[in-house]
Design a protein that fits this description.
Layout: H1 3-9, E1 16-19, E2 28-34, E3 37-43, H2 62-65, E4 75-77, E5 83-85, H3 88-106, E6 111-115, H4 123-135, E7 139-141, H5 149-158, E8 172-176, H6 180-183, H7 189-198, E9 203-207, H8 213-216, E10 220-222, H9 229-242, H10 248-254, E11 255-256, H11 258-266, H12 270-277, H13 281-293, E12 297-301, H14 303-306, H15 311-324, H16 369-377, E13 386-390, H17 394-397, H18 401-410, E14 413-418, E15 430-433, E16 452-455, H19 471-480, H20 490-499, H21 501-514, H22 517-520, H23 522-528, H24 544-554, H25 556-561, H26 568-581, E17 586-590, E18 607-608, H27 612-620, E19 635-641, E20 665-667, H28 669-675, E21 682-687, E22 690-698, E23 706-710, E24 715-717, E25 725-727, E26 752-758
Parallel strand pairs: 6-7, 6-13, 8-9, 8-12, 9-10, 11-18, 13-14, 14-15, 19-23, 20-22
Antiparallel strand pairs: 1-2, 2-3, 4-5, 4-15, 16-17, 19-26, 21-22, 21-26, 24-25
Helix pairs in contact: 4-19, 5-15, 9-11, 9-12, 9-13, 9-15, 16-18, 19-23, 20-21, 24-26
The structure holds ligand MGD (2 copies), iron/sulfur cluster and molybdenum atom.
Amino acid sequence: MSEHSEEISDPTKTWHKTACVLCSANCGLEVRLDDRVITRVRGNKAHVASKGYTCEKGLRINYYQNNTGRITTPLKRLEDGTYIEVDWDTAIEGVARGFKSVAEKYGANKILYYGGGGQGNHIGGAHSTATRRAYGIVRKSNALAQEKTGEAWVEGLMFGTHTHGGFHDAEVAIFLGKNPWHSHGFDEARRVLKEISNDETRSLIVIDPRRTETADLADYWLQVRPGTDAFLLAAIGAVIVNEGLTDDRWLSENTFGAEPTKSVFKNVPIRDYADRCGIPENQIRDVARRIATAESVSTYEDLGIEMGPNSTLISYLHRAISILTGNFGKPGALGPHTSVAPLFNYSAAGKEPLDPVTGGKIISGLIPCNEIADGFLSDHPERSRAMLIESGNPVHSLAGSEKFRQAMRVAECTVVIDVAMTETAEQADWVLPASSQYEKAEATFFSAAFPENMFHLRPAILEPLEGTLSEPEIHSRLVQATGVLEGVDFEALRAAAEEGLQSFSEAFMNAAMENKAITEYGAVVLFETLGKALPWEKQGGAVLWFSCQMVAQKYPEQVRAAGHTGEGAELGNALFQAVLDGEDGVIFTRHTHEQAFDFLTTPDQRINLDIKEMHTALEDLVTAPVKYTSEEFPYILAAGERRGFSANTIIRDPAWRKKDQEGALRMHPEDAEELCVDNGERVRITTPGGQAVAVVEINETVLPGYVSLPNGYGLSYSPAGGNPEIVGVAPNELTSTEWRDPIAGTPWHKHVPARLEAVSK
Ligand SMILES: Nc1nc2c(c(=O)[nH]1)N[C@H]1C(S)=C(S)[C@@H](COP(=O)(O)OP(=O)(O)OC[C@H]3O[C@@H](n4cnc5c(=O)[nH]c(N)nc54)[C@H](O)[C@@H]3O)O[C@H]1N2
Ligand SMILES: Nc1nc2c(c(=O)[nH]1)N[C@H]1C(S)=C(S)[C@@H](COP(=O)(O)OP(=O)(O)OC[C@H]3O[C@@H](n4cnc5c(=O)[nH]c(N)nc54)[C@H](O)[C@@H]3O)O[C@H]1N2
Ligand code: SF4
Ligand SMILES: [Mo]
């Protein structure tokens, strides 16, 4: 027998194609399995987006798939806080009864849906639309409403669509409060960063108070004083305007509101703001000129500014700088993109309702995360009374963990769908165990590439762990428990699906005309009919049939340009088939840069610079504070930095980290000296929100007076046969819900005033 045939007959030698679920890049992976263990992992070179790239985390995904924290049976909480195991029928009936009773007592609009997907899984969220409709759930939120809603509001008003930088091609790439070396956020991040850094015709600009791994590669590292980015960007914009570096002809053709915007920038006191942000004026002028004279500029803002003072204003300022210099809709610049399913409703920006209980702006339908717990805990008659939480761990990830626990305690029915017994599951009335992302079909809607955009549906590579169900199945059961689908003939549609996609689409459309439940609960109907006619490992992908039809309807020319053929429903079917077959991902749309403006939903499809609220905020900056420390809290704590082995709360076993298992508090040598602490010793951190004890790492990359803790640590985990232990500090035991942006309500986690004391040895 040749070596080759031996490989084929030995299942442990087969490479299975899938993807990493630890960050939004979702790099394509190939893995080997021995029984249920992922024994080897490598980057999938044929993957349309990642092309073989991975970071060190992706190679350790077996810690996600196989750990002792998995839940394998539905759980019901008893009065005394303990749990009993129940079967699935009991759990589904119990949940349905719980929500129905809340709806009868207070109205179904008092139930909140939270989550719907982490870094690798959005198929569950897509099915939740059916559950929400069946139970009348209209309130919702997810982690985007604690990071990206300010950005989404600005983008909605400026463009009416999401934009993303073209970092692979940009002459100047700017990272603003973003450390892509560790956090990624675009394909092949480290390769691209190194490429820009090594190319003397291109420039990497990093704005970060910490000398991060990305800052180390930068041509211009602006070590901004924490929390003062608004002053820096205002000054950069002012230099561009005052030195006549704006692209006026382009502005008059493609934008409106450029003149009033220039006027506000004109009045910015550059030298004063340079002092406030701690960057020398000549460096600000150099950077402004570099931006203005580049062929193309792309900026990536992230948590360093989204979770700090003036965050919504900063989201506007850097976009205004890009637009004033003509950087939109060309290679290497900011551009729009297609989506299989958009994460936000950008065209609704500016028309946001306010939360009836807490008063916050509900951007794109999402209740600000920092207001959720306060809402439940208020005595307002409109307050929410129940929660359905799916694929999110808000007790750990939202500001003020203790407050969120209390909110779950006062709620009358709380349900968590998760793979693990998380901090949030530990508070729930019902816990429903989901199959892992390698045990069902999964995909994300994160891909933001332009002019070509990609999508990757990953089939299951393992059978569901016994006792668990996929989210499509869980939602199907929850919806069917309400009886709304009783009149739908699944059999007939399934038979049509077995004949082929063309028969199915005709049968589906005809049936939908007769019974509106078919489209209202479309995701579940698709799963039960088309899905059940697919191979088991792809069943959950059926919901994408509808998305593919929508994409084909919206961008027929560009779907065909991406290689899919047909007209109307046939084109949608061809795209869906390609998605099902595309084990390396597929290109689903191919635009040209000239078509970028077609995406704008602003008047005349021009970019809107004239956002009055932002102009006022820019003017008011002159009286805004520069420091948020006090005698009582003299330090600034960045609560939740991304590091080599952090992955939100997706991996619970601390052993997955090769080093820094506890997640050290990084501290400048001067501060360590003042506090008389050495490496490995402990300090007590006290903030207005709470207290914790952390191990110290003396680190020259942070500024004196500024300390940082990693994100996603402090998870409870029970090793096999052992007692639960918590390793490291859970950052949100130290944060507070009221410490937030006044416009978008997003938290100031990177800027928490704190006091430090050495813990006696
Ligand atoms: N390894 C890893 N990667 C991840 C994740 C993970 O958990 N682990 N999570 C993913 C998720 S959900 C997200 S949202 C992204 C987040 O990705 P990033 O936003 O890049 O991550 P952070 O490290 O939280 O913050 C970025 C930077 O902000 C800087 N910063 C702090 N204060 C300020 C300030 O006042 N001004 C400026 N300009 N910068 C400041 C910090 O020094 C830090 O380098 O990462 C994703 N990728
Ligand atoms: N202090 C502070 N807090 C922060 C941050 C910070 O920087 N500082 N960062 C914030 C950011 S940007 C984000 S995005 C959030 C992230 O916080 P969350 O939105 O809570 O997301 P994760 O921690 O990724 O939790 C994902 C959950 O999904 C579960 N899960 C994994 N796979 C599956 C599956 O297939 N099905 C189901 N049903 N569940 C699954 C995991 O067990 C986990 O409980 O954290 C935020 N919290
Ligand atoms: S953590 Fe992110 S960058 Fe690293 S392999 Fe996974 S998806 Fe890719
Ligand atoms: Mo995030």
